[in-house]
């Protein structure tokens, strides 16, 4: 019988500085996802392996389905913080009533992307580069006989207040700033023309404004609308959320939108990525001998990825392979299945 694997990829910020109640809420979310995953697996086995008998009504459906598991991978933001992995592993094992034979791996969600390295066994080092709401670049490598790629070095990932160039928040922020400057200049009579296509789009998004008349737009307090509290989204989320609109405008040929994307890509490449490509950087491997794994909602947009690749070419940076990963969870599943043909995962490896 082929072993079952379970992979949970969750966007949960599990910070060990959080209160016990907030930590419990994070664990609850992981357990809920696990139960749903168990419920979605066909009833194809006749015995239980890895899940203890339980009278807990919340777990009874798991045992009744008779699932057989050899390994579980839980991937979530914040799991690489000191002590977090151990706390989550113990809590989840207790909540799901797992016995000790099951091999549980708890890592940061970025580590899922590094699993794509197993598709290129001839390359021992790769860079994982992400541009979503935030941005980060991490080098992974195999050491000796490792079957699990390990983190070697990282740059970026400072958050929207201090960094994250080239990511959704930075793109949205720059577009809003340009629009605010234009509005100010129009009111000061320093700008004779009205708002650009991009500016009108920004005003529309944050003000439910649909008129194409610039005079009407001047009466809208864009700054307050951007920063005001919202029941469903934070200001950060709303600002980052307009990145896709700007990318789409760039795709339609809007020069102003293209300029914003190009500037942010340049900052991301020069301030984040190239620091890992410095020969003096820890773990350095010549780009021609390492891979490039790309992910994140912004990075996976065709326009952004094209401008990003052009920026690399302009700097004569060429990787052995480039792979865009739209579904990190599937890469993790592939890795778990492949690992059974090599050797068992070690409990808690990161």
Please tag this protein with its features.
single chain; 350 residues; alpha/beta; 5-stranded mixed sheet; 3-stranded parallel sheet; 13 helices
Structural class: alpha/beta
The run of helices and strands is EHHEHEHEEEHHHHHHHEHEH
Strand order of the largest sheet: 6-5-4-7-8
N-end to C-end Cα span: 28 Å
Give unreliable regions as ranges. Answer: 9-17, 44-66, 343-350
Provide mean pLDDT, rounded: 78
Walk me through the structure.
The chain contains 13 helices and eight strands. The two termini are 28 Å apart. It is an alpha/beta fold and 350 residues long. The longest helix has 22 residues. The C terminus is likely disordered. The strands form two sheets. The protein has a five-stranded mixed sheet. The chain has a three-stranded parallel sheet with strand order 1-2-3, with helices on both faces. The radius of gyration is 24 Å and the shape is globular. Strand 4 and strand 5 form a beta hairpin.
Brief summary of the model shown:
The chain has 350 residues and is an alpha/beta fold. The protein has 13 helices and eight strands.
Helices and strands in order:
Blueprint: E1 4-10, H1 20-39, H2 60-65, E2 69-76, H3 84-95, E3 103-107, H4 110-114, E4 125-131, E5 135-141, E6 150-156, H5 168-187, H6 197-207, H7 214-217, H8 222-227, H9 235-241, H10 243-251, H11 255-276, E7 291-295, H12 302-314, E8 321-324, H13 328-339
Parallel strand pairs: 1-2, 2-3, 4-7, 7-8
Antiparallel strand pairs: 4-5, 5-6
Helix pairs in contact: 5-6, 5-9, 5-11, 10-11, 11-12
């Amino acid at each position: 019988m082929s072993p079952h694997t379970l992979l949970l990829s969750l966007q949960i910020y599990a910070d060990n500085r959080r209160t016990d109640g907030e930590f419990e809420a994070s664990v609850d979310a992981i357990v809920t996802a696990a139960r749903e995953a168990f419920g979605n697996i066909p009833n194809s086995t006749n015995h239980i392996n890895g899940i203890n008998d339980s009278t807990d009504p919340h777990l009874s459906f798991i045992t009744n389905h008779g699932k057989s598991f050899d390994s579980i991978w839980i991937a979530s933001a914040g799991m690489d913080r000191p002590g977090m992995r151990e706390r989550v592993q113990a809590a989840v094992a207790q909540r799901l009533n797992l016995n000790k034979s099951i091999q549980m791996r708890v890592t940061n969600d970025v580590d899922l992307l590094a699993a794509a390295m197993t598709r290129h066994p001839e390359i021992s080092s790769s860079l994982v580069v992400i541009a979503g709401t935030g941005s980060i670049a991490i080098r992974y490598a195999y050491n000796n006989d490792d079957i699990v790629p390990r983190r070697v070095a990282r740059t970026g990932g400072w958050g929207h207040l201090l960094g994250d160039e080239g990511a959704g928040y930075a793109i949205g922020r720059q577009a809003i700033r340009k629009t605010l400057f234009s509005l100010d200049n129009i009111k000061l009579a320093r700008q004779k023309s009205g708002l650009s296509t991009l500016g009108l789009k920004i005003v529309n998004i944050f003000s439910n404004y649909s008129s194409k008349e610039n005079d009407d737009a001047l009466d809208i307090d864009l700054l307050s609308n951007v920063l005001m509290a919202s029941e469903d989204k934070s200001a950060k989320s709303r600002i980052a959320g307009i990145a896709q609109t700007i990318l789409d405008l760039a795709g339609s040929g809007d020069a102003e939108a293209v300029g914003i994307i190009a500037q942010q890509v340049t900052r991301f490449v020069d301030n984040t990525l190239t620091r890992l490509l410095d020969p003096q950087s820890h773990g350095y491997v010549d780009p021609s001998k390492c891979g490039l794994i790309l992910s994140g909602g912004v990075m996976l947009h065709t326009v952004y990825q094209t401008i990003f690749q052009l920026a690399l070419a302009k700097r004569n940076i060429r990787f052995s392979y480039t792979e865009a990963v739209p579904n990190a969870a599937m890469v993790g599943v592939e890795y778990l299945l492949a690992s059974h043909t090599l050797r068992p995962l070690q409990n808690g490896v990161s």
